[in-house]
């Protein structure tokens, strides 16, 4: 039987979701004070409030945005602990994935901030806490089970359409906002399409034992979408029953039940819901129900309204705060650096893939941005937007789009982040890249 990798951010429960649940239950007078090693004034952008929760690799605080007075959750993680714990890949993947996801039922990542020792994840604050805490008080009615399952499938379907597979869906990773609507969180164990092997399957063993799909136990590779659907089936069963379909104090016995698909619905389950659960918890991933089939199911369809979510992959962001004057770095991928251009990720957006590259340089932001504008002028491109150390260049009737942001890393170094469309032809490779490659720091 293979070993199952559990979520390392805070045991079997998401650090952020645990924090939200704790916060929802405590009054300000009961909340613990901020830690001494974290300044309450964060980057002149956020007022750090009470400590909400702790995990093995970080702490979560409630905070207030100075500009909007909006509540946010800030996860503070030690870079040293990430490196020592071997979690660099998990954290980088979570940052990359959450950055591209914009859906009403997914916790939004607002931005990433960092100093030399710490990384600060600024996230949407889910005031309602964990859905798990609500379940602990008793099972849901069938109507409420349907409502939350519809929201869950809407979010999961959105992720799958963008090549993202969560792989650790469970009630502990589902939060509630102030309107008691569901929010999916904790993408630390997620996979993306570029992790799929030539056989078309994923092979990393991960997840939480009671929610893991039988094909993962078989060690023969698995379809990330079908694994998520299985977990959604477990969640729906728990909503309706108030307990797990496959459970045993002996882990090996529980795995055998999962592998055989041995479960029984409670007597109050309607025939329509029972049929859907049977298809969700089909031990054969080939015949297991798909997202589209779920959405067309009569039980699911009752009162369902499709959520329309639009991504804006080239949303222009200017940054004139501390990160631009040498105090701190505000960058997407702050955990590790390498000399030369680094292909950080591929993100599917409207009109083609967006390529993300980054490099470290000793040159000033002004000189780097100036060179981009100079090449754009020579090539007949348009500087669509310019603000501080950020520039967006467009051309070829919208087929060429490049956004370059330069942030201060140290007093001597900057990090240059580039986003561009894949279908730009050879313009970036032949015209822009050779000119700015001379700025790459090789030290």
Automatic annotation (TrEMBL):
Ranges for domain Protein kinase: 46-300
PROSITE patterns (alphabetical): NAF (PS50816), PROTEIN_KINASE_ATP (PS00107), PROTEIN_KINASE_DOM (PS50011), PROTEIN_KINASE_ST (PS00108)
Role this protein plays: CIPK serine-threonine protein kinases interact with CBL proteins. Binding of a CBL protein to the regulatory NAF domain of CIPK protein lead to the activation of the kinase in a calcium-dependent manner.
Class of enzymatic activity (EC top level): transferase
CDD domains: CIPK_C
Domain NAF: 324-348
InterPro entries, alphabetized: Kinase-like_dom_sf, NAF/FISL_domain, NAF_dom, Prot_kinase_dom, Protein_kinase_ATP_BS, Ser/Thr_kinase_AS
Protein name (Swiss-Prot/TrEMBL): non-specific serine/threonine protein kinase
Catalyses which reaction(s): L-seryl-[protein] + ATP = O-phospho-L-seryl-[protein] + ADP + H(+); L-threonyl-[protein] + ATP = O-phospho-L-threonyl-[protein] + ADP + H(+)
Entry superkingdom: Eukaryota
A molecular-function term among this protein's GO annotations: ATP binding
Binding site for ATP: 75
Keyword presence, Plastid: no
Pfam families for the chain: NAF (PF03822), Pkinase (PF00069)
Record-stated family: Belongs to the protein kinase superfamily. CAMK Ser/Thr protein kinase family. SNF1 subfamily.
Cofactor requirements of the protein: Mn(2+)
Enzyme Commission number(s): 2.7.11.1
